[in-house]
Amino acid sequence: xxxxxxxxxxxxxxxxxxxxxxxxxxxxxxxxxxxxxxxxxxxxxxxxxxxxxxxxxxxxxxxxxxxxxxxxxxxxxxxxxxxxxxxxxxxxxxxxxxxxxxxxxxxxxxxxxxxxxxxxxxxxxxxxxxxxxxxxxxxxxxxxxxxxxxxxxxxxxxxxxxxxxxxxxxxxxxxxxxxxxxxxxxxxxxxxxxxxxxxxxxxxxxxxxxxxxxxxxxxxxxxxxxxxxxxxxxxxxxxxxxxxxxxxxxxxxxxxxxxxxxxxxxxxxxxxxxxxxxxxxxxxxxxxxxxxxxxxxxxxxxxxxxxxxxxxxxxxxxxxxxxxxxxxxxxxxxxxxxxxxx
Length: 342
What we know:
Layout: E1 3-14, E2 17-28, E3 32-37, H1 43-50, E4 58-63, E5 66-67, H2 72-75, E6 79-82, H3 94-102, H4 109-119, H5 133-146, E7 151-155, H6 163-178, E8 182-186, H7 190-194, E9 199-204, E10 207-213, H8 214-220, E11 221-228, E12 240-247, E13 250-256, H9 260-267, E14 272-279, H10 282-293, H11 300-303, H12 327-340
Parallel strand pairs: 3-8, 3-9, 6-7, 7-8
Antiparallel strand pairs: 1-2, 1-4, 4-5, 9-10, 11-13, 11-14, 12-13
Helix pairs in contact: 3-4, 4-5
C-alpha cells in the first residue's frame, strides 16, 4: 500500500522545549487518519510541519514523496489545509475570497468553490467579518476543498459547525477517501471521527503512543472481564495493563497487546469463570492510553485513575466504581464541555 504521508523522527522545539518528539508515522493512500490527543499533545505543531508552515528541528516529514518544508510551494497545489482558527481578509465577502484565492490555484477552483459555498448555504455577498464561527469555518472548508486536493489536512475541522453540517462534512470525507484521496485530521469529537476514520494515532506530550488502522487497534487494545472465587488473577501476566479494577468478585482490565496464550490459560484457570473479552471504542482507547502515559511510574490501577493503591498482600484491592480522572482525562472532559456549549 502506498504511503502518502510519512514522518521519520520528526522533532520540533520551542525555546528549548520539545513539542514534537521523534514522531514517526505512515499514512497510506485513501486513509482517513485521525490524530488524537489532549491539548498540548503536539497535534497542531505536527500539522504545521506537514503543511510547510514550520520547519522541523530534526527528522523529516514528506507528503506525496515531497519534503514538506523544501517543497512547500509545490505541495500547496496538491494539499488542502484547514487550520484550527482560519483567518482571512475580513473586509472581503464570501464570493470575493474565493475569487482572490483562485488566482493562486489551477483552473476550476472558483467554480468548485462556488458549488461548495452553495452546499454550505453561505451567502456570497456576506462580509466575512459578519459570519458566525460556524460560517467562518465553512469558508475555510470550501477553500480547502475547492483545489480538489490529493491530500486534505484538517486541524479541528468541524469546530463550530452545527450537527447536520458536521455529519455531512464527515460523510464527504469518506467519499473523498473512496476516490483515492488521503485525509489527516485532528479532532476532539472522537465519537464523530470514529464513524469515518480508517486509522488513528494517539499523541501525548509530543510523542506518538500508538498508531494503526482501527481494525488493528481493536485487536491490540481489549477489555477483559471475569469473576474469581478467591485470589484474583494478576493482570500483568496478560499484557500491558492500561486500566485495572475489581469490585467484590468482579475483575476487569484493559490490556494493550494481550498475551493470547495467557488469556487462553486464564479461561481454564481454577477459581476463574465467565471470562469475557470485548473491544473498546476510540474514546475508551484514547483515555486508557493517555491515562497510563501520564502516570508511567505508578501501578496499573493508579495509572488508570483509581483512588486505592494495590494491597500489600498481593491481592487486588476492591477499587469499586469510583474513578479519579487523570490530568489528560480532565482536559478531554473540559474540551467536550466546550464543544457542547452553543
